[in-house]
Amino acid sequence: xxxxxxxxxxxxxxxxxxxxxxxxxxxxxxxxxxxxxxxxxxxxxxxxxxxxxxxxxxxxxxxxxxxxxxxxxxxxxxxxxxxxxxxxxxxxxxxxxxxxxxxxxxxxxxxxxxxxxxxxxxxxxxxxxxxxxxxxxxxxxxxxxxxxxxxxxxxxxxxxxxxxxxxxxxxxxxxxxxxxxxxxxxxxxxxxxxxxxxxxxxxxxxxxxxxxxxxxxxxxxxxxxxxxxxxxxxxxxxxxxxxxxxxxxxxxxxxxxxxxxxxxxxxxxxxxxxxxxxxxxxxxxxxxxxxxxxxxxxxxxxxxxxxxxxxxxxxxxxxxxxxxxx
Amino acid sequence: xxxxxxxxxxxxxxxxxxxxxxxxxxxxxxxxxxxxxxxxxxxxxxxxxxxxxxxxxxxxxxxxxxxxxxxxxxxxxxxxxxxxxxxxxxxxxxxxxxxxxxxxxxxxxxxxxxxxxxxxxxxxxxxxxxxxxxxxxxxxxxxxxxxxxxxxxxxxxxxxxxxxxxxxxxxxxxxxxxxxxxxxxxxxxxxxxxxxxxxxxxxxxxxxxxxxxxxxxxxxxxxxxxxxxxxxxxxxxxxxxxxxxxxxxxxxxxxxxxxxxxxxxxxxxxxxxxxxxxxxxxxxxxxxxxxxxxxxxxxxxxxxxxxxxxxxxxxxxxxxxxxxxxxxxxxxxxxxxxxxxxxxxx
Lengths: 326, 346
Known about the structure:
Order of helices and strands of chain B: EHHHEHHHEHEEEEHEHHHHH
Number of domains of chain B: 2
Shape of chain B: globular
Helix content of chain B: 40-55%
Number of helices of chain B: 13
Largest sheet of chain A: 5 strands, mixed
CATH superfamily of the largest domain in chain B: Thiamin diphosphate (ThDP)-binding fold, Pyr/PP domains
Largest interface: A-B, 45 and 45 residues
Shape of chain A: globular
Radius of gyration of chain A: 19 Å
CATH architecture of the largest domain in chain A: 3-Layer(aba) Sandwich
Strand order of the largest sheet of chain A: 9-11-10-13-14
Strand order of the largest sheet of chain B: 1-7-8-4-3-2
CATH topology of the largest domain in chain B: Rossmann fold
Number of strands of chain A: 14
Distance between the termini of chain B: 55 Å
Oligomer: heterodimer
Helix content of chain A: 25-40%
Strand content of chain B: 5-15%
């Protein structure tokens, strides 16, 4: 089995999809000759040709809008948006069309496509290269949202997303694109959409995280053990829409305490929805209010401030302490 | 100017007399449909409606030039062209009656649900044409837009994509002079809309939108060109809507009533085609009267079909949100059923 980092696993997933399904088209800005600004599509145009891996004009609404027409007419477009913070020109296409094709046509047309976007901060990039507006899209019915935190899940979720009959927003944690390598099968496999993963079992408190924040949460869990002796369970949501209720609730029923961690601003972030879900399903299991550790409710700052804007292990530990000491 | 003038290029027409009569029949039916729809709204039997009277030649002329397999991406005023392309009249009525069934073109009829956000459907036409090209199919796509829509970013992005990718697509613009109340002079600084096409390396054609034959020939030319793999065309059909933007609008607030009256009396597309087929000796006043009576029957039957529909199936809120319903939607559907029942049967 090969060792791959997240970006390599994504490239490999795209390669398998392009090889196995002639309907798959990879398109976006700089994805062809240049292999993408993060090299996620490196070598794919050379291997599959410029009809399958397409450099488009610089136009996010056009890329997503054209992908709608392609999907409706039988293709499986996999558009890349260069950064999640560049999605805003395409939001109208996503909200008004991508998410609604099946509904509006009452099943006459469908819109299977996978919108890939590197999300979150932490790479010292310019403004609007570090946003995490995933909650905007979790709020939009008709699309699914996934966010892997490791190379194995990245490839498996990507292939599951491309197979999905519904549109999927595929968020890539760019800060950890090359942070570590895992064993990744070279052949096709999928990771089921809608399934979270308990990556570290524990008995005292549940931490819910995804993408970049997963490893930071594991670090905070380690600190909690060392400093307080608390045994923290860490759950990688992997799919943000639809949420894996069973795993989320199962964990908090066991531990009785929980903290949700995300990079996005705290207010009306996905953490609020998870707190509401726990409130609906596990209120009587709780020994303390569910905590939230998020980005501050201020626009994502310039990069000299990004390390204290996004949660780090220290802030997550602080959140754990508040809930444990309630 | 880089665009071509249809009147200069075409002498005569590609159409036979028989075909002109068929187009004429469609135009009369569409007009009668439109007038009945306005009246149905006035009497509270359908919701807000976007009337097209005055634009019948642009729509029927366009629709008549296309092939069955072609893809249409309409706006909310394209009832005429949609019906010519195979969307049943009852489906159109159902849409304006707020019924989800009104968005469903029949199987094999490639008409996308009406797009309400302006010009957003143009990139879809581009994508559908792109897919046809990749699959080696003989279908083309037509994206519809109005004069106001040419100011939207999606218009620009679609035109640019179409030009760069050399796609088998037609962007068909009905320039009716007003975007709700805003006249063309406040919409653009260019003299025509067709000339904008040059900026994208796309051929632009300006055609008299009140002349069904000219519109047909322009669209047929563009469609044939697209099918030969020679790329996209932008067509500006100069037309006029006699009435308001929708039944919720009052055009007398922003338009000189004499202007509308002038178009109606001097540039009416139905009068014009009728004169042409009368002159050719292939149509008579008796036939004309019979046609209007027949149109009334067709429209009346369709209205009755709409009114005979069972109550809307409540499950339609949920059943097409995803291929397979996630747990939370299943639960919400159950709650809906317990509170409101299933509504009409499927």
